[in-house]
Amino acid sequence: MTTLVRPRWSRVSIDAPDPAVIAEAAAVLRQGGLVVFPTETVYGVGAHADDPSAVARLCEAKGRPADKPLTWHLATVEAARAVPVEWPPAAQALARR
Question: pLDDT band at residue 4, thresholds of 50, 70 and 90?
Fold first, then answer.
């Protein structure tokens, strides 16, 4: 059974993000929780991709099959290069940009 936690809502200014709010979201992710964030078109739901329990909670929350691939958001090119099995030249060109 999944334990439900009351959501905490925080606004983040795109022009002046509050480091405390970002740190809190990062702590939630490190603890296996989920974070909702806006993207260009929709809201995303994020989990720590290296935490199988968090990924399972994400799939459950979204009603998503566990075998359907997920998008990873990574901070650096080095972090991205550590993930894929293949890193084609097109990926390197895109990462440089």
Answer: low
